[in-house]
Amino acid sequence: MISCDSYRMTPITEVEGRRVSLSNLDKVLYPATGTTKGEVLHYYAATVGSVILPHLAGRPVSFLRYPDGPGGQLFFTKNPPPGTPAWVETAPVPRSEDQGARQVVVRDLASLMWAANLVVEFHTPQWRTGAPGVADRMVFDLDPGSPATVVECCAVALWLRERLADDGLAAYGKTSGSKGLHLLVPLEPTPSGEVSAYAKRLAMEAEEALPALALHRMKRALRPGKVFVDFSQNSASKTTATPYTLRARPEPTVSAPVTWDEITGCRKAGALVFRAGDMAARLDLHGDLLAPLNDPEQARPLPA
């Protein structure tokens, strides 16, 4: 229940025994849909809280902040914001330019709501705080160059799925929440450099197998009509949009898990666009499609 602090005139709610200050609940963050900040907070608290937390747990989070909505100022931050409550967990992270760097770790619903109140996209690395630079998953970010769309991304994803299966690895898909697709693979703990090298090799193989469709280089002159198979997010210094995070797009789109049937059947650009309002029904139908990423029994070794 939200009450009002008579002195600060800031809505306060108690979450798991923590007092969390919430602000500007009636502020429209997504003008295209009229979605307010209060509705965004409800999305994280009531719709996806139980499924996003396992994907955030134990990972240092980076924030893309958009406090005035996607049409306002956007800025990326890794450091704990000023005023971070003492009860919000932080962890040391390796950063060449800052030996004492720390980042927020969202470990419970209270810290999730505190962070969501900042109006953020959640981004996390492929490793956990206890073992920085040792990945427990691999990611391929499939990014279409216009006029290619998510339809072409799905075609590349299907090729990568089969190629990964040849090496004994299972892949799981989610939308980027923008125009592309992410493939994630649970791994036994492996140095990020080795994961990056393997992912690059598969991206090059994809380009060789699908020369009219796939590309492993970022060079923009090569991008039109093709899918860039971005393997670079496996670097220990890189992050990827966390499953279920809202994105700073014109509408409240979600980086949403998808089934392989949906990927296989994708025939139009809008087929895999999911918004905040879609997620409750999808979770009722599918549960967390990416739960295997957090199950150690599903992890497999990277091929030698």
From TrEMBL:
Pfam families the record matches: LigD_Prim-Pol (PF21686)
Domain named DNA ligase D polymerase: residues: 36-289
Record Gene3D superfamilies: DNA primase, PRIM domain (3.90.920.10)
Keywords, ordered alphabetically: Ligase
MF terms in GO: DNA ligase (ATP) activity
InterPro entries: LigD_pol_dom (IPR014145), MtLigD_Pol-like (IPR033649), NHEJ_LigD (IPR052171)
Enzyme Commission (EC) number: 6.5.1.1
Ligase recorded as keyword: yes
Keyword Ligase appears in the UniProt entry: yes
Enzyme class, broadest EC rank: ligase
Official protein name in the record: ATP-dependent DNA ligase
